[in-house]
Amino acid sequence: HHPSSPPSVKALNLLKAAVSAPYPASKPDAPPLRFNLDIVESTPPTPDQLRTILSYLPSASASPAPLSTLLSSHPSAPSGSEQPRTADAVTKLASSNPSALKWPIVVDWDSGKASIGDVEGVKSILEELRRKRDGEANGEEENKSKGWFS
């Protein structure tokens, strides 16, 4: 989470509401979602976390999303040949210039889902959690790898 990023603030408010109030809010008798909300503020993910997060992003191909997916269009962010080429370089850049990253970075580590800089992606993650809670998940997740040990 980065407090100066409006999408990050909006996403954080959505996540907090989902664990503390009826979800969805349009159904007052619905229970809140149950998940561990761990907020890391203004600190970029580690290089290993970045690689994993990129592999969790929805993509049309089997390969992880490119590192450039993490970079913002902020004027202080590098572009073209100046962009970092490794996850270590992205973490180093984000440590010195948090505005260079797209915020929020939201990860459902248990389901292998992530959203970068996109409030709609956060809503999608929450909706998937609601579907699982309400028994509406269509079973696709059962056949999907959950990590290294599956």
Automatic annotation (TrEMBL):
It comes from the Eukaryota. InterPro entries: Fmp46 (IPR012882), Thioredoxin-like_sf (IPR036249). SUPFAM superfamilies: Thioredoxin-like. GO terms for cellular component: mitochondrion. Coiled coil: none annotated. Residues 63-93, 128-150 are annotated as: Disordered. It is found in: Mitochondrion. Keywords: Mitochondrion, Oxidoreductase, Transit peptide. One of its GO terms (molecular function) is oxidoreductase activity. Residues 63-79 have a biased composition (Low complexity). Its main location: mitochondrion. Belongs to the FMP46 family. Putative mitochondrial redox protein which could be involved in the reduction of small toxic molecules. This is Thioredoxin-like protein.
